[in-house]
Amino acid sequence: MAKYVLASFKTCPWVQRVAIVLREKKIDFEFKHIEPDNRPDWFRAISPHNKVPVLRLDDKVSLFESGAIAEYLDDTAPPRLHPEDPVARAINRAWIEYMPTFVDITSGHAYVDTEVDFNAAAAKVPTAFEKLEKALERQGSGPFFNGARYSLADAAYAPFLQRHLFLERIKRIGHIDRFPRVKAWAEAVVARPSTHSFPPAEFERMYRQTVKKRNKWISRFVEDSKAAAD
Asked: Which of 14, 53, 107, 123 is the most exposed place for a label (fewest CB within 10 A)?
């Protein structure tokens, strides 16, 4: 079996996406954590875009970009996470393509400098949730994107649904409560063991430290709010 080494920042959601797929497939792998502000030469040599994640295979081949790595793992290691039906698989891939837009909308309020901008960004969040709510309604009864079966779509969205719940515990906007399917999906993927590279309380504390360090408007609420995982 190939040796898998995953180059990572500890709190990077794109790395987390790959780690989830590795765990779902029960593939042994090793994390190699680096600091975002101090990327070593060995990492620059294996990462064409100087970004994480990079999945190193037998210290010979570097795979990069989380979506491409997830697809490679699904092509080469059981169990298959994509739907077997080509139409369902295409629909899943299309919704995975929407994920970066979803992330920008549902986390935008965490990256602004003023209360006015925070409120404006938060007001846009329901547009993304509404799209996913309708998609989940068409896909089945849950708890996952395709119903009872876990998929690459779940692995793609899990890190970002998790972070939205983290943000809700820092400064609540409450929009997710209006979309019961999305909320149930978020809770299901967060409860799944494969989502976690660290103990949940420890990871949430790391995330909150990251939010504090950004020094955006929401950062002032980190010390005053309490993480549910504590």
From this structure: 123
Which secondary structure element, helix H or strand E, spans residue 190, and what is its range? helix 180-191
pLDDT in tens, 9-47: 999 999 999 999 999 999 999 999 999 999 999 999 999
Say whether pLDDT at 230 is over 60: no
Distances in whole angstroms, Cα of residue 83 to Cα of each of 90, 148, 186: 9, 12, 20
* Domain ranges in the chain with CATH number 1.20.1050.10: 86-221
CATH T-level assignment (fold) for domain 4-76: Glutaredoxin (3.40.30)
Pair 131, 98: CB distance under 8 Å:
yes
Cβ-based neighbour number of residue 153 at 10 Å: 25
Strand ranges of the sheet holding 4-8, from the earlier edge strand across to the other edge: 30-33, 4-8, 54-57, 61-64
Question: Rounded to whole angstroms, how far apart are CA atoms 18 and 138?
Answer: 26
CATH of domain 86-221: 1.20.1050.10
